[in-house]
Structures are given as structure tokens and as C-alpha cells.
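Let us walk through a complete example step by step. Step one is to write down the protein sequence. Step two is to encode the small molecule, zinc ion, as a SMILES string so that its atoms and bonds are unambiguous. Step three, shown after the inputs, is the structure prediction itself.
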Amino acid sequence: MADVTFGSCCEDLAEAMTRPENPTFFVEENGVLYLSIGFAETEEGLMWFDMAAIHCPFCGKQLQDKEAIAATEEPEESEPE
Ligand SMILES: [Zn+2]
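Step three: the predicted structure of the complex.
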């Protein structure tokens, strides 16, 4: 999954992906493309909100599968059993 390349759907995304100074799009180690949608000042500093980009924000093509992404994500909190 690490060799997935994003930006093959349209030039806009390709351009966004090839600009390292752009923190809006980033690919995590699990190969999932995330999209930063905002940030907030908290007591612990700047906190970014991001979401997995299921669809290309420019052309709307489906890039990733929600269930496949869920399978790659580590559960942040484990429910007590
Ligand atoms: Zn696109």
C-alpha cells in the first residue's frame, strides 16, 4: 500500500501533492491520503483536524476505500472489556 500514488486523477491534485510546503495534503505511513480541514488553538498547542480523503477534493474521483482505510488505522483508544 506504500506505493500508492495520489494525483493520477487530475492535475489539481497532482500539483497539490508535489508541493511539500503545502500541509493540507499528506500521506501517512499507512499509505492513506489525509486532508487537513482546519486547526484550533488548544491548551496543548495547535491542533490539526484532518480526515482521510475518500474522494479527490478537486475532481471528486474516489481515491480510497473507507473500509480499507479503517483497516489500516490503529485504534486510538481501546474499549475496556
Ligand atoms: Zn482529482
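Step four is interpretation. The chain is about 15% helix and 25% strand.
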